[in-house]
Structures
1.
Amino acid sequence: MNTPAHLLIGAAAMGRPGQARVTTAAVLGALAPDLSLYLMVSVSIWGMGIPAETVFRQLYYSDAWQAVFAVDNSFVLWGAGLLLALWRKSPVFIAFTGAALLHLAFDFPLHTHDARQHFWPLSSWVFESPVSYWDSRAHADIVGPVALMISFGCLAWIWRQYRSLAFKAFAALLAAAELMSSGIWRFIF
């Protein structure tokens, strides 16, 4: 799924109306598995001047980048974090790790050749799904609209549950970003 969808799902599922720290942790946890990708892409393209085509066709698949993705996309590590959070009874850390695990749960069945090592460090196995959220050759024309509907469903729930106009506006921006990014991936691929 696109990152804005993950943020909306994380906020809706793990955030708590009236508890800004918990909701912020949920949003940040939903972002965490994609953060390294954004940082490495940004540094490569804008900091080092590497063409985007090289970044997404070569660097993304390199052993070095995949090693980073294995860490921040590990069900094992995030699951251990959630168990620790539950043991410590920390609502903020539960929201953070829970949203990250939701991110992985939605990503796992929706990545084809771009899949990650979701069970690192126990295994380097990669599940290459026949279904993709971005690749039209792997049913993105179906998955994309479903992800968009889920995103707008989360937006509606957030608008009903939260009082903060700033958070409602943030959620609306995420939904707009999801709408734009879904269309862009279907157009490109």
Note: Residues 3-188 form one domain.
2.
Amino acid sequence: MRKLPRSFYARDTVKVARELLGKYLVHVIDGVPHIGRIVETEAYIGVHDLAAHSSRGITPRTRVMFGPPGFAYVYLIYGMYHCINVVTEREGNGAAVLLRALEPIRNLDGKTSGPGLLCKAMGIDLRLNAHDLSSDDLYIADDGAPQSQTIVNRPRIGVDYAGEWSGRELRFYIQGNPCISKK
């Protein structure tokens, strides 16, 4: 497997969200690689997207979203669950892709269907916020195999507060995969 280059992330967020499906999230902890295949994502396309954390501007929490692409934006939700996003597009845009679900591949304990469960199984927490995804201990990789999966578009989950943005089909998943978060 080869790490995705920074140029992969420095593109349109919707395109990145779709093309992350089938790639592998790798977190090396104490020399042990924990690997899951990405099977569900959501695109948050910048400050104009009312469901995106960046829509409230630059804050200590969202600063990483406005930085260069290819970094992890990790945050805590409901005071107990971590979520990991991948920063996309050019610096200053405030765009990112939420990783919603993984198919366990190697060394994963527990469920991976949902962003909080995914982070728990992968050992991802706030210490990895703003982590460079071209590092050797947390990265996304491609095995080079051709992708022949059907991708489904649906509205994002849990963004009813976002007005017209709540119904936009910016959630993507691999059709028929048993590990997606919501059927």
Note: The helical segments are 6-9, 13-19, 115-122.
3.
Amino acid sequence: MADDVRVRRIAAMRGCDRILDGVRPKSLRERLAELSEAAGPELMPDYYGDGLVGELEDRVAGLLGAEAAVFFPTGTMAQQVAIRYGADLTGRSTVALHPLGHQEMHERRAYADLTGLRSVHPTAAPRNPTAAEIAALPEPVGTVVLELPMRDAGFVLPTWAELTEVCEAARGSGARVHLDGARLWESAPYLGHSLAEIAGRADSTYVSFYKTLGGLSGAALTGTTALAAYARLWRHRYGGQLFQQWPAVLSALVGLDRELPRVPEYVRHARTIAAALAQLPGAVVFPQPPHTHQFRLWLPHPAALLNDAGLLLAEEEKVWFTGGWRDTEIPGHAVTEVSVQSPALEWGTDEVIDTGLRLLDRVQN
């Protein structure tokens, strides 16, 4: 049943003329055509990490102001290597993580099961830890992980001063700082500093190529040349030394060329969209204004009704509003994540409100 709904949802989104949340799903033929156009007639595939992979690694290292970057097939693998490096380098088998962080919520605690590390939680508040909380840790840690932005807290970011202070506190305790920057691309406008300046606060940074940039898959880990050498060794041991990765790498390069320059525009327009959504009956938007181009929206209706209403709106009016609603601990209230990207730039305040009211009419009926 879930697969049937997913197929129906993709078909509905592909048929929409207007999309507020997310982007129109592409078919295999469309993705292949996009890659073919970007490749040109003379570009050759990579072999075990050479050629095009090296080009992407150099590009990302330059963007983040790092000595080196290493391409990984997944961010989960990249992050485990970064945390393992911190433990080996410092001799400390404990890592400071947030309970809402990606390692705890979405990586099945691989740092513990695969590497044998332990975690401590500097805070349970829905934000990154502060310098005082790092200084108050009950035991030495090898790595302090900061997620920018913190997705499961609502895509929230610290201020530049807070980020600087917590990084200094971590280093003062003898720990490395690792940035879980899967969505680092959209963090720069709020922090008011370049990607290189943000990554420069830390010892290592992970970025994703399919989040925000629209790549097929893949990630990069940046840092020193020593980290890069270590990362290549452990990437192979973890099974990440693939024979050819050119589809993912080429799509990442396309994303850097086409999407990355537009991210500040997405972030700016997210504030307009969020303010409009907040005017719907019973709506709550967080954070307000958004820190990035993504934020959370609550409505006082069950998730099933909202998902059904959104699907009907798409099929009947060819307009995609939002989807992916899930029930919360508050009875009768549901939450979703809104992602403002290229299609949403066409939406103004009045259209958001009018379409939202039509969605709610379907919920009530």
Note: The chain has a mean pLDDT of 96.
4.
Amino acid sequence: MSGVAVESSDLSGEGRLGPGQLVLVVGPSGAGKDTLIAYARERLTGRADISFARRRITRPADATENHIALDERAFAHGVAMGDFPLHWQANGLSYALGPEITGEIVAGRIVVANGSRAVLGRARARFARVRVVHVTAPLEVLAARLAARGREAHEAVLERLRREPALDQTPDLRILNVDAVDAAGERLAAFLSGL
């Protein structure tokens, strides 16, 4: 059973978590998802009905993303205990949304999280209301952004971009992130404000 107690009244529609909604910001590595999420978080400061998730990742913390670093053992323990309402593997790492997300959704809030296209089906099975924002950019822009991070060699960057999964349905919002961050960031903030 989960480390977070979920009463039957916390669920809506076929046992899915609600009444709040999960907004997953998805897209290829290097699209600028974290940058746009940070921009929207700043613009929407003071909106008590919107929260921004800090993912658990089996990667040391760094300046490129505000996440909670876990080692593989702690991550596996969290999965085994049912602490993570959503978790997935990508690019050799493990990712999860933490147990606090359950409370936010049950309280009726909008939770915004950097997600994965590969986990959208599981998200829809777990949460009553899921919105999808697809952020992307041209391949050469993605490759340049990933190279600038300095985490992977050029061939590893290209391999990562080649294996990106397709979306399983039309997103609620699509952002081509090639302009200044405020242009794309305003689109995300406006979308979230309208939910």
Note: The domain at 14-193 is CATH 3.40.50.300 (Rossmann fold).
